[in-house]
Amino acid sequence: MSSRSPSPSPSPSRGWAWLLLSSLFEVTFALANEANHGFTRLWPSLLTAGAAACGIVTLSLALRSVDVGVGYTVWAGIGAVGTVVLGTLLYGEPLTAWKVLAFVLIIGGALGLRLSERHAS
To answer: From the record, what ranges are coiled-coil (predicted)?
Structure first.
């Protein structure tokens, strides 16, 4: 029998902060992956690997207090929207009306998931 007491469960606010940070790492991973040209450029390759590792660690910390279905969906949604927006700004990728509509739907879905978790508490 262990003499250690169980650790208190993390606060939902902290989980959402970890989730936001993890989403930023996800966007960094995607953009650096474009810049590394198939892992043929050293610094973008190192940034890709570092962002991927940090993103997984912070996502796992977020999922200590955020439901996995909600957390993963929000993480992927923020990653997708952030990558398209920054891909447009940094790489000159086209931003179409269909992409903007998809953003609105993704953001609306993420907000809906956040609200559903708030009401479930």
So the answer is: none
For residues 55 and 77, the answer to whether their CB atoms sit within 8 Å is no
The SS3 call for residue 118 is: helix
C-alpha–C-alpha distance, residues 97 and 85, integer Å: 13
Nearest to 62 by CA among 104, 30, 24: 24
pTM reported for the whole predicted model: 0.81
DSSP-based three-state secondary structure for 22: helix
What lies within 8 Å, CB to CB, of 89 at 6+ separation is none
At residue 2, the pLDDT reads: 47
Locate 106 and state its tokens. Answer: 């993704």
Which residues 6+ apart lie within 8 Å of 105 measured at CB? none
What are the sequence ranges of the domains in the chain? 13-120
